[in-house]
Amino acid sequence: METISHNTIETSKVPTVRTDKCLYVHKDKTTNQIFYVGIGTISRAHSKGGRNREWHKYVKDNNGYKIEILHKNLTVTNAKLMEKSMIAEIGRRHLGTGYLINILAGGQCHERNEEAVYLHMPDKIRWVIDHIKELEDGGKILSQWEIYSVCQFGKIV
After folding, report:
1. Are 99 and 86 in contact (CB under 8 A)?
2. Greatest CA span in the chain, whole angstroms?
3. pTM for this entry
4. Nearest residue to 40 (alpha-carbon basis) of 108, 112, 113, 117
5. Backbone φ and ψ of 122, nearest 5°
6. What pLDDT does 17 receive?
């Protein structure tokens, strides 16, 4: 049996751990209060795309925001753990546990899940989803027009 010395292992074949993630916060320009915690690349921290509805409303109502990179050169695993911990510590507004506008608990790093997709939908679409079971149980089947009218006008017309 042939023994292999550790000196003969090709380092090019050893997988490298990427450390291109950062933990960042978005802050109110006036009060300096953190309103959003995120992870991703440095360019993600500066991007306005892919943000939730509450984020856009907050930024518009408060005339912008400041970006602070708290930690750089993180692995995905460490970034997710740090984000989740910070969000839990500060709390989320829609749950009544704090003032962050983050929808999710953190650690997803842009993974899609049902909660995120649902919470990003327009209110009128969520109303249809929330009431479809009631309508089905009552024997009511919505026509395409009724679904459209609820989405457009907030009620069946």
Report:
1. no
2. 81
3. 0.64
4. 108
5. -60, 150
6. 76
Determine if residue 26 is left, alpha or beta; phi over 0 gives left, psi from -120 to 50 gives alpha, anything else beta. Answer: beta
* All residues at 6 or more sequence positions from 122 whose CB lies less than 8 Å from its CB, including other chains: 151
Structure tokens at 109: 């790093």
Place of tokens 């024997």: 139
DSSP string of 26-37?
A: EE-TTT--EEEE
d(CA 129, CA 151) in angstroms, rounded, equals 11
Mean pLDDT across the stretch 37-65? 92
d(CA 113, CA 124): 20
Which tokens belong to 124?
Answer: 């009128």
Q: Residue 82 is inside which H or E element, if any?
A: helix 76-90
Reported confidence tier of residue 45, pLDDT bands at 50, 70, 90: very high
* 76 burial via Cβ count (<10 Å: 0-12, 13-18, 19+): middle
* Residue 134: φ, ψ to 5°: -60, -45
Q: Is the C-alpha dihedral spanning 103, 107, 110, 112 positive or negative?
A: negative
Q: For the chain, how many residues are written?
A: 157
In the chain, the domains with their CATH numbers are 16-108 (3.40.1440), 123-153 (no CATH)
